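Lay summary. Proteins are chains of building blocks that fold into shapes, and those shapes determine what they do. In this project we predict the shape from the chain. Here is one chain we studied, written as its sequence of building blocks.
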Amino acid sequence: MRLLALLLVAALPALAQDPGSIAVLERREIALEQSLAAPTHGLRLTLAWFKESSWDPEDILPAVRQSARILAQCGVALERAELVQIAAPERYRDFFTPTSRELARSLPLGKPTVYFVAGTRQRPAFDAEAIGRGNSRLRPELADTVWITRGTRDLGIVLAHELAHVLMDSGEHSEEPGNLMRDETAPENTRLSDAQCARLISEGSKNGLFGKPN
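And here is the predicted shape, written in a compact code that computers can read:
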């Protein structure tokens, strides 16, 4: 019995460092400069990235700041972001509904959450995907999340586009020239219409994704 107890004690550190586990390694609050004098709504984001990936904060934070400037046209202030570094086995580092559900379930993070992943195993494959309330009924763990792959171009515009999908709880795209919600993101596509802003504010408020601006 004494030998068994010693073996169990010796095994505890190995269990704590199980390479097959999902864990939060670091959390860091990022304050963002405000581009609005009197915002009507405040938004806080959780930005999750993998230690073992090629993402790093130097890639992520400029894109977050650009997306904040785009969403400001609707009176939304992106006030603060929590940068969360996570460790997870390789199978979780791509967006794929079955494993991404497990990942999100294991990490109770604040919403909306943006996951910066290596790639996607979904078919059809997209560089980025947004999951709101309307398209998460069969995968509730993924509600109010955005998944962005490493090869994504125009990262700040893509982030704003996908966040708008989540906040509007809509997968609709626009054919209006220069509109952020065109199905192809591009540097010149940054505008949101009054109707889009109204829906973004209405649905985002209904779903509890806004707080009071500071």
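What the prediction tells us: Residues 1-17 have pLDDT under 50 and may be disordered.
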